[in-house]
Batch of 3 targets.
Target 1
Amino acid sequence: MISLILLTGSLCFQDVPYIELVPIPGNSTHFDVSGYEGDIWKVLQQILGFDYTVVASVDGKFGAPTANGSFNGMTGMVERNEVDIAISSFFLTVERAQAVDFSNILVPAQ
């Protein structure tokens, strides 16, 4: 079984109806996801048979280039292999796409 980490911008991050953190009953420190992206994630989990843990961005940011050329936020955590995947409603930019891989866009910006 593959173990992946699901990453959201922060543990208070909500972008309903796309992604929403849901407390796991009886556990005040662990969360699950719901919403469109959460539903897609759970279908992939069932089909591919992997486990995941929800963690927050180390600095609560989505990711921007820093002075030394690396990234902060979620993008930086993926770039540094601190997590395997980031799921959130943040925008694909040229800079981020040069640092990490992106999936196809699920919901186009309006």
Target 2
Amino acid sequence: MNGIEATLKITRSQSSIGVLVITMFDDDDSVFAAMRAGARGYLLKDADKDELVRAIVAVDRGDFQSHHCQTHDAILHCIARAPIHIQKTR
């Protein structure tokens, strides 16, 4: 199971849980797939401590936090234009 699959499973079974994805993948497809799967945050693994704390607090409040999309309109645009692509892992 990869991170997108795990996010889908978590958010479908417990919608009250906020998923913050921390990854090394910075491409649009990965970011948007995570968002469409229900992630409330998306950070790169090299994020500094302050950025990580801000993201955790934002996700806990129910907000969305990402290095990629900073405004509500940008987030909606990102979600709307990118389908979820799940690669099966072994």
Target 3
Amino acid sequence: MGFITDHSSDTDVISIGDGTVVKMAGGSFGMHAIVEYDYEGTTFYAVYAHLSAYDKKLEIGKKIKKGQRIGKMGGSGKKK
């Protein structure tokens, strides 16, 4: 499940829960981060795509908290 929204690049993108950053890259999703989450014993991943910038504290392998900023919303990559 996912959604694409069109907001200002000043809008913060925040984590939906406590998790671990497993990827930070570019490509058709533009600048994006993938975060691994565990919910009641089930592992799932969220892709935060089309970012204009990463938060300075974001690093692969680093734990993040619910509500922590991942980056800034943007229009990088291919949106359809």
